[in-house]
Specification:
The chain has strands at residues 3-8, 11-20, 23-24, 36-37, 42-45, 48-57, 70-74, 86-92, 113-123, 127-131, 135-136, 145-154, 160-161, 168-170, 182-190, 193-200, 217-220, 225-234, 250-258. It is mainly beta and 259 residues long. The strands form 3 sheets. Strands 5, 6, 9, 11, 12, 13, 15, 16 and 18 form a 9-stranded antiparallel beta sheet that branches. Strands 3, 4, 7, 8, 10, 14, 17 and 19 form an 8-stranded antiparallel beta sheet that branches. Strands 1-2 form a two-stranded antiparallel sheet. Strand 5 (42-45) and strand 6 form a beta hairpin.
């Protein structure tokens, strides 16, 4: 477990309270099918609370079948690709035309979904554990997509908290320093502001296989933070679109834990 640690106005020497706390969304033994909306929700972990808010998306596509965007605690596992009930973020690109330029890693794509985590006080050692940030092509049993999840963290003084590759852990326990499924994108620009991001580089399990947590990513912020803006994008805007399709696909990843 990591620490959600509150700092007083005089800095580190004036720490007011300390809690060892963890919010686990992954429930491997849960049979519940009740969806819990999280776009505008408040969570409490130990003595620290935070809210999800300011949700927005420029990638909302078709709303039939149903394939709407979701940001929910749900057991909707997108077939078999996500392991267990967790906080699932699905971006809906169905019916949305690819943005120029046509490429598998288009860092300039305008299609993105956003949400902000706002804490009631500064927290240190904030850690996010995420599943299934990956990349697929028809050749490897997937389809054309490149997931990217980006982070813009600010401290109480509204200063950017920069991530480096050393703040990223890979694999089920976050103990690995590299991955064949993910890579770190340092200081990219989304909407005119700087983020750090995790991008998929390979498929996290074949379509016919069981879901894999080997492609998990753990992000640990190196300084106390007050807010974290998350962006979720599909960087693959390749043309031509696969035969018989006229739109991009759904994108999904899961948040297992915040601690």
């Amino acid at each position: 477990m990591m620490l959600l640690l509150a700092w007083g106005p005089l800095g580190r020497a004036a720490a007011q309270a300390q809690q060892i706390s963890r919010l686990t969304y992954r429930e491997p033994n849960s049979t519940s099918t009740t969806d819990v909306e999280k776009r505008a929700a408040t969570e409490t972990v130990g003595g620290t609370s935070f809210t999800y808010g300011n949700y927005s998306s420029s990638a909302t596509g078709s709303t039939t079948n149903p394939i709407t965007e979701i940001f929910q605690l749900t057991s909707d596992q997108q077939g078999i690709q996500l392991d267990a009930r967790m906080l699932i973020w699905r971006q809906n690109n169905q019916g949305v035309a690819p943005a120029a330029p046509s490429t598998e890693v288009n860092q300039n794509t305008t299609y993105a979904a956003f949400v902000t985590l706002t804490f009631t006080r500064d927290v240190t050692n904030l850690r996010l554990v995420m599943q299934d940030i990956d990349k697929g092509t028809p050749a490897d049993g997937g389809s054309n997509f490149t997931d990217q999840v980006a982070f813009r963290a600010l401290n109480a003084a509204n200063q950017y908290v920069d991530l480096t590759g050393s703040n990223i852990g890979y694999g089920i326990n976050g103990a690995n320093t590299s991955s064949t499924v993910n890579t770190f994108d340092d200081n990219i620009t989304i909407g005119g502001v700087v983020y750090d991001a995790i991008r998929g580089t390979d498929l996290n399990g074949e379509v016919s296989s069981n879901p894999s947590r080997n492609g998990n990513v753990t992000v640990t912020f190196p300084q106390p933070v007050r807010t974290v803006r998350l962006a979720f994008r599909n960087l693959n805007t390749s043309n031509p679109i696969p035969t018989g399709q006229t739109q991009l696909r759904l994108q999904t990843f899961g948040i297992e834990e915040i601690s």
